[in-house]
Amino acid sequence: MYGRRLVATVALALACLGLCGCSSPYTEASSTEAPNARYEYSAKADAAVEDYATGASEEMDNASDTAMIRRSADVQLRSKDYDAATKDLDALLKQFAKVVLEQSEHSDSYRYSGRSATVRFRVAAEDFDALFKAIEDTASWSVENSQRYADDVTKQYNDTEQRIDALQVRYDWYKEQVQTTENPELAREYSDAMFDTLDEITRLKNQNEELSTDVKYSIITISLYEDTTVSDIDDSVGLWDEIVNEAMVLPKNIVAAFGHLLLFIISALPTLLVLGCIIAVAMLIRKVWVRRHPSSSPAKSRWRPFARKDASRPAQPDTTNPPADES
Questions:
Q1: For the chain, which end, N or C, has fewer CB atoms within 10 Å of the first or last residue's CB respectively?
Q2: What does the pLDDT look like over 52-95, one tens digit per residue?
Q3: Cα-Cα-Cα-Cα dihedral of 78, 81, 84, 87, to 10°?
Q4: Measured CA distances, 132 to 72, 82, 123, 137, 147 (Å)
C-alpha cells in the first residue's frame, strides 16, 4: 500500500512539472545540441548531405557517360646493335615521354650476358597507340614481349568525388556550429570533428588527383636487352686464352691480399710501437723493483726435474732398497 502511494506521488509531481513548463537548463541544452558531435550528427547536417546526394545523382549518371580508362604497358626489346638501339630509345623518349619516372642501365661483367637498360615514363593517353606504332617500326630492335593493361576507374572516381562533396557539406555545418555554439565543451567537440573531416577530404582529393593523372598520362616500362650470342664473339679469343685469363685471376687475388696485409701492418705500426714501449717500460720498472726489494721477489723453486746431476757431488746412497746381508 505504501509503495502504490509513493508511485502515485512521483507521477503527480512529474505531471505538475510538465504542466508548469519547468525544466532543467542541462535538459534543454541536451535537447537542442548533440552531446557528442564526433559520433552523433545532427539532423540538419544529415538532411543537407541527403539533399546533396539526391540532387547530384543525375549529375553523376551523366558524368558516367565519359569513361575514365587507366592504361599502362610493359615492353621488352632485344637488339644486336645495342648502341644504335639506345640512341633510338633516347629519341623515342624525347618524342613521347612527358615525365621520366625511372631510368637505369646495367653492364654485366660476364661476356655472354650483354648489357641492358630499363626506363619507366609517362606518356599522354592520346599518344599511347602512336608510341607502340613507333616501337614496332624501329628497326634497331625486335619486340620480344609486350603487355598492355586497361582499367576502367570511372565508378571509383565518381564515388570518391561524391564522398568529397558530402564531407564538404558536413565540414561547413561543423564550421557553422563552432562559430555559433556557446557551450565551450561542445564547441571543442565540433572543432575536433571539423578537422577530422578536413583531413579525410584532403586524403580523398589526393587520391582522385593521382587517379586522374594516371588516366591522362599512361605509365610505360621499356626494357632493352643486348642480344649477344657465341657467334658474335671475336674468334681470335681461343680456348687457351680463356684458360690463361682464368688462371691469372688467382695470383692477382693473392698479390692483392698481400698488398692489403702490408698496408694494414704499415698503418698499425705506430700503434705497435707504442704498445712495445709500454711493455718495455713495465718490464724495466719490475726489474728495478726486484733489485731494490729482493725480499718481495718470489722464491725460486728448487725443484728441477730435468736438471743434470752435478758430477762434483758424491752420489747419495739409495736408502729405499737396502742391499741384502751376505751372511
A1: C
A2: 555 555 555 555 458 899 999 999 999 999 999 999 999 999 99
A3: 40
A4: 12, 20, 11, 9, 11
Which residue in 173, 178, 176, 179 sits closest to 189, CA to CA?
178
Residue with the three cell numbers 625511372: 102
Question: CA-to-CA distance for 228 and 108, rounded, in angstroms?
Answer: 12
Grid cell listed for 158? 565518381
Own/partner contacts of 309-315, CB < 8 Å, gap of 24 or more, are none
Tens-place pLDDT, residues 155-191 = 999 999 999 999 999 999 999 999 998 899 999 999 9
The pTM of this model reads 0.53
C-alpha cell read off for 109: 661483367
Torsions phi, psi of 99, nearest 5? -140, 130
Angle at 197 between CA 194 and CA 201, to 5 degrees: 135
For the chain, the structural domain boundaries read 69-154+216-230, 237-280
